[in-house]
């Protein structure tokens, strides 16, 4: 008798049910095809791209690596509680996702010693070491933020090899350069000899490609680029998405268009982080969702953002933190048999859509949690995430005289308490400013928390 | 017929008044708040002459219908007695009035009331006792039910229900509530209205009038066949059927006897001819009472254990709340810092709610019914453990502060111990003053360069941030909080939001006499 275990059975029936659901959905809301779509497709449902498609590969001009355009960002995974109640990564889930990604041609995995409360590297190491080493590229970072001490850097570097179960690292990044300026760079890497050490490791082949990730403004970027002559950056990781292309605020950060052009000019391969701007472009303001869906009723919000960055030829890979299978599948559909956007579509995103988003008072938080843990217990990214979702959902009241004020008031206050335990809410911020220097987006965190707190107070006191 | 009307009215009153204690949103008070205000002792404490006269006139006219309909504790005993009587008809028998105990307690009660020994008053007052029982034992269950609904609502994206934190406000008061409940259940289970006719000071007060009631159940000696049926149904044990007499001081007008008489010998009718005087019978009650006590031991134990388990559940809840923390590892990203729970600070003078005018006035008017504690949405009010004010509410700010827009306690107080105020008036009343302990303040200690969270959240702008070093000339000098005592109203926002833990660096002490600022 053929034995099917329960898990397998559930999986199979689940897939069956999902397939039936999907067909029903497709049949019930068959979209009105735009001229463009009709031109591109046959109008009939073809074979599933996940089965027949090929992952878009980009060649690293430096060493000929064929890198998948979709890279796996390992900063966010599902967590569970261990026996002591601590958050730990759900390793089974990570294994499953990484296996699936590898099977579909994803071969670039980006992690760091500090991600996920320091657990990311080990989890990624466990998952990847189950596969042949030359099937994938590992990217990790020198995340020596809290100390310029050489021993800290050395420990981080050596631990990366141990946790990732490897004797070489394909892509090694100086984590988050820029905001410290030239001085910060000097203290973190030059004065303590860490830079010389890493250059030597590159010579030895322990580091195949040495690059950096950048957060900061134009002046700071120029300072980093000036070092290219001296150190030869093999690649640079930047924040790029259709919002930041032209709408970066200029003081805290710089337009991705500028970054791209500067790197392109020098022929440096580019790795993209935050293509969804910390997930915010996956759920943009209602008006933008309408525009995107009118343009292509079947495309996910996120797929537009990924296509935008993928359409630029100098991009080596686009990192996406895929926590759930559906994220991975949606991204695979974008990057397998990848079709770049037209000039008109690029402009539609970075001019029209980004222009609308720029008019909303969201906080530019990418939920990276670098600011955490706040010593006073505040859930900083949680508060911003909740606020942003209310802004984007049109749930922010303007005045107590408006018609739906009481409804908006209740919705905000109740959902705020649900999202954030009261002791971790914005009113407990003491403005110690410890978080400010940690934020890669240079958000004035205490200021923004106070702004949200004042709004909450006005709602509570009915003085809006 | 009369019994049916009584049962329906009693059920309505009982449910409504219980809901008053359960409804933490405060919406029901607009509609049903008057039910608390027509309770006898609250009306006395509120010096609400109209209600007192109304209740006395009601009693003179119709007997102690108050005890059968309006008093929630009385109705609760009827419910218990009814359950205990299921299947065994006619278990009651006439007992002599325990005069010494009854009037002794009443005299003590009056003395305590006048002397302001409120703990004793609140312990015996039937409305307060019921409030305590509901607030301590039933409200947590109700709130857990609400939280389940909130959980489901959250899943459905609805904002109809929100989570209400369940916490044990005071262990001693919780135990008093448990003890009261156990005692009442035992008494009611065995002998119906024993509490009302021997202990309850309100019952005794009304009995002075009910014995002269204009309408009352009267036995027609001609029709009575001496079957004792009425006596067996009388939960007040006030019908001496052998002598065909009713003790109207103890009759609570439940009308059970009327329905039970097969011969129509008892009628509720105009009887202002001459008052019936209860006759003395041989004293056998003590033996009966002793037997009862022994039999009830086992049951009391069971009930006691059940209630204690609920208590433990509450305690466990409290502990898990405190344990809501995760490890703190400096070098990594994410995670949450541990938040140490706040502890109650020393207060030179206790804090009573806005609208209570003065400590003394509050102490003399509050009947410790816990209604305000039930409705306080900010976790500020809780019953006091101080013997002098035992069970009366006081304010503390570990869980929240007395928010400027909230005046719920003042809206519900039935005794006028907390006078009705508006949010506008609230910000002009001073109930306490904050003071800073610079040994605890994180800026004064040099732990951080900037805080000022107290100043940012003071609703009246009473906290002034001043230079730590007056000679400092930097553009952004280190500044520490000071309290402008003339502006401070004592709401506790600063204390609640102060980052210093477990004891806040800025704490509020009460004013003995509240006044405007």
What would you say this structure looks like, in words?
The complex is a heterodimer of chains A (464) and B (517). With 464 residues, chain A is an alpha/beta fold. Chain A has 2 domains: 49-358, NADP-dependent oxidoreductase domain (TIM Barrel, Alpha-Beta Barrel), CATH 3.20.20; 380-461, no CATH class. Chain A is built from 20 helices and 12 strands. The longest helix of chain A has 23 residues, at 6-28. Chain A starts with 5 loop residues before the first helix and ends with a helix. Chain B is mainly alpha-helical and 517 residues long. Among the domains of chain B are: 2-270, no CATH class; 427-517, Alpha-Beta Plaits (2-Layer Sandwich). In chain B, 46% of the residues lie in helices and 9% in strands. Chain B has helices spanning 2-22, 29-37, 40-45, 49-62, 65-70, 72-85, 99-115, 118-124, 126-155, 171-191, 194-199, 201-210, 229-233, 256-260, 285-322, 359-365, 371-375, 408-412, 423-426, 453-457, 493-497; strands spanning 215-219, 239-240, 245-246, 266-270, 381-383, 393-395, 429-436, 463-467, 479-483, 506-516. Chain A binds chain B through residues 85-87, 114-118, 146, 368-370, 372-377, 379, 410-411, 414-415, 417-418, 421-424, 427-433, 450, 457, 460-462, and chain B through 154, 159, 162-163, 323-324, 326-339, 400, 403-405, 442, 448-453, 456-457, 497, 499.
């Amino acid at each position: 008798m053929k034995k099917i275990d329960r898990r397998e059975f559930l999986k199979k029936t689940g897939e069956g049910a999902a397939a039936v659901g999907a067909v029903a959905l497709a049949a019930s809301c068959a979209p009105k095809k735009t001229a463009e779509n009709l031109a591109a497709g046959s109008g009939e449902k073809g074979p599933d791209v996940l089965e027949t498609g090929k992952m878009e590969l980009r060649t690293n001009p430096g060493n000929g690596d064929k890198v998948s355009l979709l890279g796996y960002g390992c900063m966010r995974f599902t967590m569970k509680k261990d026996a002591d109640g601590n958050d730990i990564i759900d390793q089974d889930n990570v294994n499953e996702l990484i296996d699936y990604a590898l099977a579909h041609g994803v071969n670039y995995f980006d992690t760091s010693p500090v991600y996920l409360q320091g657990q990311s590297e080990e989890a990624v190491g466990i998952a990847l070491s189950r596969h042949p080493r030359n099937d994938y590229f590992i990217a990790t970072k020198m995340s020596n933020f809290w100390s310029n001490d050489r021993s800290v850097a050395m420990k981080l570097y050596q631990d990366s090899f141990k946790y990732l179960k490897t004797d070489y690292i394909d892509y090694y990044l100086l984590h988050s350069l820029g905001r410290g300026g030239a001085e910060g760079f000097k203290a973190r890497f030059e004065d303590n000899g860490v830079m010389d050490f890493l250059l030597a490791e590159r010579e030895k082949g322990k580091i195949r490609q040495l690059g950096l990730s950048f957060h900061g403004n134009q002046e700071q970027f120029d300072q980093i680029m000036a070092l290219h002559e001296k150190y030869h950056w093999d690649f640079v990781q930047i924040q790029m998405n259709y919002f930041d292309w032209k709408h970066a605020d200029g003081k805290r950060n710089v337009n991705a268009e500028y970054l791209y052009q500067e790197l392109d000019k020098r022929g440096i391969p580019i790795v993209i982080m935050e293509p969804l701007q910390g997930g915010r472009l996956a759920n943009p303001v209602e008006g933008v969702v309408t525009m995107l869906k009118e343009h292509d009723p079947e495309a996910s919000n996120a797929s537009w953002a990924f296509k935008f960055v993928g359409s630029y030829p100098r991009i080596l890979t686009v990192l996406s933190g895929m926590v759930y299978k559906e994220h991975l599948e949606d991204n695979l559909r974008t990057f397998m048999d990848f079709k770049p956007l037209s000039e008109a579509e690029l402009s539609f995103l970075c001019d029209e859509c980004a222009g609308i988003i720029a008019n909303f008072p969201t906080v530019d938080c990418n939920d990276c949690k670098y600011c955490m843990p706040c010593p006073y217990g505040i859930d900083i990214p949680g508060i911003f995430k909740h606020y942003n979702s209310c802004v984007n959902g049109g749930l922010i009241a303007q005045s107590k005289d408006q018609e739906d004020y009481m409804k908006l008031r209740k919705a905000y206050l109740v959902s705020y308490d649900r999202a954030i335990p009261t002791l971790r809410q914005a009113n407990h911020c003491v403005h110690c400013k410890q978080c400010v220097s940690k934020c890669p987006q240079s958000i004035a965190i205490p200021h923004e928390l106070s702004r949200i707190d004042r709004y909450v107070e006005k709602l509570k006191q009915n003085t809006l | 017929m009369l019994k049916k009307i009584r049962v329906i009215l009693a059920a309505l009153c009982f449910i409504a008044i219980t809901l008053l204690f359960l409804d933490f949103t405060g919406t029901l008070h607009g509609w049903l708040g008057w039910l608390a205000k027509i309770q006898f002792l609250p009306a006395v404490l509120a010096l609400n002459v109209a209600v007192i006269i109304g209740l006395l006139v009601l009693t003179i006219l119709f007997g102690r219908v108050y005890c059968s309909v309006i008093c929630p504790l009385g109705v609760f005993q009827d419910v218990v007695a009814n359950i205990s009587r299921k299947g065994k008809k006619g278990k009651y028998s006439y007992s002599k009035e325990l005069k010494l105990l009854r009037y002794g307690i009443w005299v003590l009660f009056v003395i305590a009331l006048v002397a302001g020994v409120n703990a004793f008053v609140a312990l015996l007052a039937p409305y307060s006792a019921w409030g305590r029982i509901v607030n301590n034992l039933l409200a947590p269950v109700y709130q857990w039910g609400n939280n389940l609904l909130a959980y489901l609502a959250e899943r459905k994206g609805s904002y109809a229900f929100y989570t209400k934190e369940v916490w044990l406000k005071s262990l001693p008061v919780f135990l008093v509530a448990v003890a009261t409940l156990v005692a009442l259940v035992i008494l009611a289970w065995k002998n119906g209205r024993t509490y009302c006719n021997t202990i309850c000071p309100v019952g005794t007060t009304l009995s002075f009038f009910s014995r002269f009631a204009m309408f009352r159940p009267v036995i027609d000696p001609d029709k009575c066949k001496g079957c004792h049926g009425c006596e067996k149904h009388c939960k007040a044990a006030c019908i001496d059927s052998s002598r065909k007499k009713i003790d109207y001081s103890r009759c609570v007008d439940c009308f059970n006897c009327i329905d039970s008489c097969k011969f129509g010998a008892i009628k509720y009718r105009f009887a202002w001819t001459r008052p019936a005087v209860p006759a003395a019978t041989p004293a056998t009650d003590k033996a009966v009472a002793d037997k009862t006590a022994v039999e009830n031991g086992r049951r009391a134990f069971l009930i006691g254990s059940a209630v204690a388990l609920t208590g433990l559940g509450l305690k466990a809840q409290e502990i898990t709340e405190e344990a809501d923390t995760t490890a703190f590892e400096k070098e990594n990203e994410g995670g949450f810092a541990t938040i140490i729970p706040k502890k109650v600070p020393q207060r030179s003078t206790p804090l009573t709610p806005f609208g209570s005018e003065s400590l003394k006035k509050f102490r003399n008017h509050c009947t410790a019914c816990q209604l305000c504690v039930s409705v306080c949405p900010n976790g500020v009010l809780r019953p006091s453990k101080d013997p002098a004010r035992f069970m009366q509410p006081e304010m503390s700010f570990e869980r929240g502060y007395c928010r400027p827009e909230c005046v719920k306690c003042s809206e519900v107080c039935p005794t006028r111990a907390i006078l009705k105020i508006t949010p506008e008036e609230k910000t002009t009343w001073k109930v306490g003053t904050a003071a800073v302990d610079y040994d605890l303040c994180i800026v004064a200690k040099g732990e951080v360069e900037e805080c000022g969270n107290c100043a940012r959240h003071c609703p009246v702008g009473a906290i002034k941030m001043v230079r730590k070093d007056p000679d400092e000339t930097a553009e952004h000098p280190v500044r520490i909080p000071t309290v402008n005592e003339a502006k401070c109203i004592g709401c506790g926002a600063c204390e609640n939001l102060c980052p210093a833990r477990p004891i806040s660096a800025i704490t509020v002490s009460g004013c003995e006499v509240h006044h405007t600022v």
